[in-house]
Amino acid sequence: MRYKLLGKSGLRVSELCLGTMTFGDDWGWGSTKEESQAVYDAFVESGGNFIDTADLYTNGTSESFLGEFMAKDRERIVLATKYTNTAPGTDPNAGGNQRKNMMQSIEASLKRLKTDYIDLYWLHVWDFMTPVEEVMRAFDDLVGQGKVLYIGISDSPAWIVSRANTLAELRGWTQFVGLQVEYSLIERTSERELLPMARELDLGVTAWSPLAGGLLTGKYAQSSKAGNEEKRLEHPMMAPLVDINEHKRSVAAAVVEIAEAIGKTPAQVALNWLRQQPAVMIPIIGARRLSQLKDNLACVEFTLEEDHLRRLDEVSQIELGFPHDFFTNEMVQNFAFGGMRDSIDNHRKN
Questions:
Q1: pLDDT tens-digit profile of 332-350?
Q2: What is the rounded distance in angstroms from the CA atom of residue 101 to the CA atom of residue 78?
Q3: Is 150 known to be catalytic?
Q4: Which residue among 57, 83, 150, 183 is the active-site one?
């Protein structure tokens, strides 16, 4: 296991992050405490130090389990948790980005996690109600109090993240160092705005669902042969987000073919494609069973060759749309640079 600096910070995190949404069987499909402990121990023993959870996961059980598991090695763990979401109820302030929910959520998480600080505190999803100023000032207060060391933002539009960090920079507040998005060979739309923004702002990217809910593990092909496509999903709650079409079938098939050709598993191939993307890109690997984790961890033992990367890029590519396609138009380029673009050396080009 190697380590990366998380975005524009000095924080060292492992090149794989352990996602713990499966810790606990409160939702009817997760792992027992014993299996969760085995997964945690194996990840740490492999050199992993970056662990991701959320107050919502398995109704708080995920955080509670981690609080016990980390007791012997809390200082070496880079612990990330999130706030915003909550189960449906009658309290309008129980969910959302507002200061009240942030303060109540951090205190509850600290108790469950049996710690007095969070290394990386994520905003889980943007609510489109709370002012950006309120969010960033509240985050800065938590950092000032020592309850949070770094902050990140997940599942939010690029314009929100950019505005938030620009505001924080101008006012001397704590800025986001991490961005969490869904990203995989199946879901590449983050390449339109979110990932270019992350490179420009030097945000470390953690990718959730890097195996597309199981579509990239090879189970898709197996279940299709068996006539039962529902078994391919690692997380049943992901089912509404996965729409199997011909494009996704082609991507999954290419992953399986490359895996067979190089003697690796489809999951390892899919994770390695993601690991080899530009800038700081860290897959969040989650596992209900120890065997799944061990298979995923083995992705760090090799890299994909250029022709394999090229094939995966081509079969999974998306249309970037406007304004990206507009910028690449030859006439537009000619006018924008007065016909001199090829004569200009741009050291900032990605």
A1: 999 999 999 999 998 877 5
A2: 23
A3: no
A4: 57
